[in-house]
Amino acid sequence: MGDSISLHYGPFLKERLSGVAVIDSKADYAEALENLDLPSGANGGDSSTVERFLQHLVKDRPGKPDWLILNCGLHDLKSVAAEAGWPATDLHRFTRSLPGNPFCDHVHFTPAVREQQAAYLTGSIALLFNLPPSRRPGA
């Protein structure tokens, strides 16, 4: 689940994690892509919007996921994650380290950068969850 940035790297991440994890998000991906600046459809928006959605989801969906990966309102979530002791991957720092201009507009990234973001996140997920080499994406 995430914001407009995660909508772009999401398909790459889903492909890389195939066989390791089920990637799910809010419905209506096409609606979200119509205007990435407005949270609608699969675009979760900021952390408060996602929190409301998750509270609703917990009540209405049976079972619980093994893992929950979020990308939303990261600026306000960094301190929350640190205080709670949750692991966090700094996608912003990684993206800033890439050469050239990574942007396709005022805030979103080119397809090549999205693919690199998904690769970075895949590696981070494998490390965070101590996946043995045989379970790591691409193994």
Short précis:
The protein is built from six helices and no strands. With 139 residues, the chain is an all-alpha fold. The mean pLDDT is 81.
Describe this structure in words.
- It is a single chain.
- Helix content is 49%, strand content 0%.
- The protein is mainly alpha-helical and 139 residues long.
- Helix 1 (4-16) crosses helix 6 (111-128).
- The two termini are 25 Å apart.
- The chain has helices at residues 4-16, 29-34, 47-60, 74-84, 91-96, 111-128.
- The model has no long low-confidence stretch (mean pLDDT 81).
- 21% of the residues are buried.
Furnish the topology, listing elements before pairings.
Blueprint: H1 4-16, H2 29-34, H3 47-60, H4 74-84, H5 91-96, H6 111-128
Please tell me what the overall shape is.
Answer: globular
What's the main sheet like?
none
Low-confidence parts: none
- Mean pLDDT across the residues is 81
Q: Structural class, please?
A: mainly alpha
Total helical segments? 6
Ends distance: 25 Å
The H/E string reads HHHHHH
Strand content: under 5%
- Which percent bin holds the helix content? 40-55%
Q: What is the gyration radius calculated from CA atoms?
A: 15 Å
**Structural domain count:** 1
Number of strands: 0
